[in-house]
Amino acid sequence: MKRFALLTLLGLVVFPFVFHAINGYAGLATQILIVSIASIGFNLLLGYSGLLSYGHAMFYGGGGYVAAIMLIRLMPDQPNLWLAVIGATLAATVLALLVGALAVRLYGIYFALLTLAFAQMVYFVVEQAKDWTSGDDGLQSFPVALLPLGPYNVNLATPLPSVPLGPFGNLGDIKLWYVFAALVLFGVLLLVRALTRSQFGEVLTAIRENEERSSLVGFNAPAYRLAAFAISGALTGLSGALRALYDGTVAVDSLGIDRSGSFVVYTIVGGVQTLFGPVIGTGIIMYLESVLSAHISYWRLVEGVIFVAVIVILPAGIIGTFTKQAAQRAQERRALLARSLQPLSK
Amino acid sequence: MVALSQALLNGLVLGLIYVAIAVGLTIVFGTLRLVNFAHGAFYAIGAYVGLVIAQTWGLPAGFIAAPIAVAIFAILLDRFLLRPFYAKDATSQLLVTFGIALIVEETLRLIFGSTTQQYPVPAALATSFSLGAFTYPAYRLLFAAGVIVMLVLVWLFIERTDYGLIVRAGVRDRTMVQLLGGNIRQASTVVFALGAAIAGLVGAAASPIYSIAPGTGFAFLVPSFVVVVVGGLGSFWGAVLGGLLIGELQSLTTLVFPPAANVIIYLCMALVLLLRPQGLLGESEVIRQ
After folding, report:
1. What's the pLDDT band for A345 if we cut at 50, 70, 90?
2. Nearest to A234, CA basis, from A82, A344, A93, A106
3. Which of A12, A42, A84, A247 is the most buried (most CB within 10 A)?
4. HEC string of A226-266?
5. Cα(A26)–Cα(A21) distance, integer angstroms
6. Would A334 be classed as within a structural domain?
7. A25-67 pLDDT, tens per residue?
8. Could you give the C-alpha distances from A21 to A18, A170, A293, in angstroms and in order?
9. DSSP string covering A46-114, please?
10. Domain for residue A116, yes or no?
11. Could you give the ipTM of this predicted complex?
């Protein structure tokens, strides 16, 4: 636990500097951390309850719109980041509970299509509710939310002090937003790690593997799936709210099918059913997108090829394959050790 | 009254496109148990192949080339990429076919650009039929008739041929068909190519009516999935009923209250999924997978 926490924090501290050295920039690093939270939420559902949602954009975009509308309508004079983010996360949770109550009784393609249907309905309703959402134009220039911390009202757009770091850029490139996003992501990782290792996570996996048996033992399978769906939706809503506040804009794309599909791609490429897979997948794809799209126009084709190649060649994803191989090697070492310790009787 | 009749006819044309795509989806599901998110890509490829060929050799040549090209593409997909996925769960199938759809869409974008294109209605057909109080474009009526003829042929294929027998039996009980020695492997390749060819042909034939862009395949696929779910996955008549229902529903809502036109079909699907998950004409055993 301690080792996990330290290594994760270390990774989050080092990341923007290493990222700079490979042509990334601090703003993109912040966005990657924020979107990773949604991928983690998506993976909680796909990886641990085996449910493929094609509608997670409704929580992501929904969170973004709720945060933006709260700032514009409820607190134009004292924009409070905590309130906006918590409000958006709660709204996403409620939406997830409503959709989930209907969806968790379905499986496979039916579940995927029902979530897609709800996401499409949310998309078109938001697009049509022009008075609140500005329709296709999206919402821009909403009040900059400040983060109240004790006596201070922190503006997360404040950069860190300028310290040149050679090939690793400048400390001053990094804004407080990165620190905040990193802390939130760290908290989410701790939470999800604890969840998947708890009895809740074990029951969820058991239901995924054999629902009938788990139900006969006495677990209420739909209730467990609904809980997973709600947590997944909440994390995705949190991510969407942070992204809207960070970007200072939210548009209907954030509710669209392509958005829902992107979480699928990030999670599968990184490694489903792993803690860090969704983070790594989000990072790799968003990084490649930013770097490649500057040079080649057919970046999305490359993304599609990577995605299919991963599914066909590395079904466990990038992280999943590493950990599987590591586990296999450890087992081989143990077996070798056991054999070498046997008395040479023959 | 005129507006209503026109909306009904528009709904019929749109619904027939959905039916044609949905029939392919549903017969492929019946034999292969494959949930194919790449089926819309067949429509788009057909539309573009048809467009390119028609520009040089005329529309009839385009109508012949499109289904052939798409069928070849489908056979290659089946042979080299999809086979290992037939035995896997629906989620893996959705993922890999979603990836294929992504690749096809972006390849089309790379070749043809992102702009929407439209093949002009051939001069001979660029007239309107007079239907009592109003007129309706001749090409659309001809298109509707053509799709109906094609659907009848597909129905005859399913009902009257040996392959069709395997398809129908496969929907009921796939394992039993294999145990009895039905050559599902070969039949499934034929059915997969057939479903793809239908989508490709409709894509080419519809391109003078609806403009095409690289994303068109996916744009038609999603409502077609709605159609299949509403009608019942695996059911031919379900696809027909669902397609006409969804097409008319969309068209009539556009007439009465345009903002709701895109929501209504998803609402309809959600209701069917919740109240009768196997679909209006579906068999109940296929829901859980």
Report:
1. very low
2. A93
3. A42
4. HHHHHHHHHHHHHHHHHHHHHHCEECHHHHCHHHHHHHHHH
5. 11
6. no
7. 889 999 999 999 999 999 999 999 889 999 999 999 999 999 9
8. 5, 11, 18
9. HHHH----S-THHHHHHHHHHHHHIIIII-SSS-BHHHHHHHHHHHHHHHHHHHHHHHTT--HHHHHHH
10. yes
11. 0.83
CA distance B36 to B94: 7
Give the minimum alpha-carbon distance from B110 to chain A in angstroms, rounded to a whole number: 6
Cα–Cα dist B13/B247, whole Å:
8
* Chain-chain contact of B99 with A304 (C-beta, under 8 angstroms): yes
pLDDT, position A45: 94
Q: Does B233 touch chain A (CB under 8 A)?
A: yes
Residues of chain B with pLDDT under 70: 171, 182, 284-289
Please tell me the distance from the alpha carbon of residue A203 to that of residue A197, in angstroms, as a whole number: 10
Instruction: Tell me the two tokens of residue A197.
Output: 């290792």
Q: Within chain A, how many helices (H) and strands (E) appear?
A: 14, 4
Residue B230 forms contact with A (CB below 8 Å): no
* Cα distance between the two ends of chain A: 44
- How close is the nearest chain B Cα to the Cα of A264, in Å? 8
Chain A positions in Cβ-Cβ contact with residue B266 (cut-off 8 Å): 116-118, 120-121
- Answer yes or no: is A345 within a domain: no
A246 Cβ neighbours under 8 A, 6+ residues apart = A30, A31, A34, A156, A177, A181
Look at residue B1 and give its three-state secondary structure: coil
Which residues of chain B have a CB within 8 Å of the CB of A257? 218, 222
For residue A331, is it within any domain?
no
CA pair distance B203, B209, nearest whole angstrom: 10
Return d(Cα A102, Cα A123) in angstroms, integer: 19
Q: Which two tokens stand for residue B239?
A: 């696809």
Rounded Cα distance, A142 and A82, in Å: 16
pLDDT recorded at residue A340: 64
B220 strand-pairing partners? none
Confidence (pTM): 0.88
Rounded CA-CA distance B2/A345 in Å is: 97
Which amino acid appears at position A125 of this protein?
V
Domain that holds residue A231: 2-315
